[in-house]
Amino acid sequence: MVSIDQMVKYTPVKIKKKTVKTVKSIRLVKAVYDTDEFGKHQKAMFKVIATTVPRKVTIKMYGKTDAPYIRRKSWVHCSCEWFTFFCEYALARRRSSEIINSNGNAPVENNPRQWPYVCKHIIATFDRIPKVKFKVPKIKPGQEELEFFMKEIEKYIPS
Ligand SMILES: [Zn+2]
Prior knowledge:
Elements: E1 2-3, H1 4-10, H2 13-18, E2 25-36, E3 39-49, E4 55-62, E5 73-78, H3 81-93, H4 120-126, H5 143-155
Antiparallel strand pairs: 1-5, 2-3, 3-4, 4-5
The structure holds zinc ion.
Residues 55, 78, 80, 82-83, 119, 121-122 line the site of zinc ion.
């Protein structure tokens, strides 16, 4: 996995300095603490509007929550075509994304060196992360667990 500052470092200057200015609005959709096969993480989902349809951006940050966010190993995804054809494969190879919209073939022409860079929508959301308040999801126990706990509790109730 690569960190956010590595993704920024590899992103072409043209994207970072120019096209990112076309981003008109960023709306936080969801921000939660979560766990998946790579471990515990903080997940932020955004709706980003630039020149065309709204794009869905997801950022998951792993590792210690008190570390500077740009240093944390991260997983990212954007629903735009540029991300699909230039970034998805190169990032998925490093477990920093997943093959969702591309056909899973290496981007031989678009990103032959497979640098782990990101699109303008993702670059634009990185600055928002320090202000995001992540929520701890409420855990509802399943029926089986509930019955187990009830039996455990009953043991302590004098009959
Ligand atoms: Zn994008």
